[in-house]
Amino acid sequence: MRFANILGAWRGKAARASRKRVQSYRLTVFSANPRLDRLRQHLHAELSARDLRISQMRVASAPAHDSIHRMSVTLQCPPHLRGALNAVALGLGRHPDIQRVRYEQLQ
């Protein structure tokens, strides 16, 4: 009986530790193209295909027509998928409509 209690406590501690390891990141894409619909769909499909879960997506239009438009995606990324996040960011940087890609780890 005592061993079962110790084992249960250890399992709970391991589950809490694995939840802590999942980090939040914000991926921000800057584009001069005001139509971010296709880019939003492409990014959603790319992240979903790599098992990266989006928790929030924001699209901010620029005030002037020829200004920079911004799309921010907040996502959860476990450590073993960090390489996939890097690959997505690098791939987006090669897209012709995108001027700059930035991602950062959130607290």
Structure description:
This protein is of the alpha+beta class and 107 residues long. It has helices spanning 2-21, 37-49, 82-93; strands at 23-31, 53-60, 69-77, 98-105. The chain has a 4-stranded antiparallel sheet, with helices on one face. It starts with a helix and ends with a strand. The model has no long low-confidence stretch (mean pLDDT 82).
Quick structural overview:
The protein is an alpha+beta fold.
List the SSEs and their pairings:
Blueprint: H1 2-21, E1 23-31, H2 37-49, E2 53-60, E3 69-77, H3 82-93, E4 98-105
Antiparallel strand pairs: 1-3, 1-4, 2-3
Strand count, sense and barrel status of the largest sheet are: 4 strands, antiparallel
Molecular shape: elongated
Low-confidence stretches: none
Proportion of beta-strand residues = 25-35%
The count of helical stretches stands at 3
In total, the number of strands is 4
Mind telling me the C-alpha Rg?
A: 19 Å
- Percent in helix: 40-55%
On the 0 to 100 scale, the average pLDDT is 82
Distance between the termini: 40 Å
Question: What attributes characterize this protein structure?
Answer:
3 helices; 4-stranded antiparallel sheet; elongated; 107 residues; alpha+beta; 42% helix
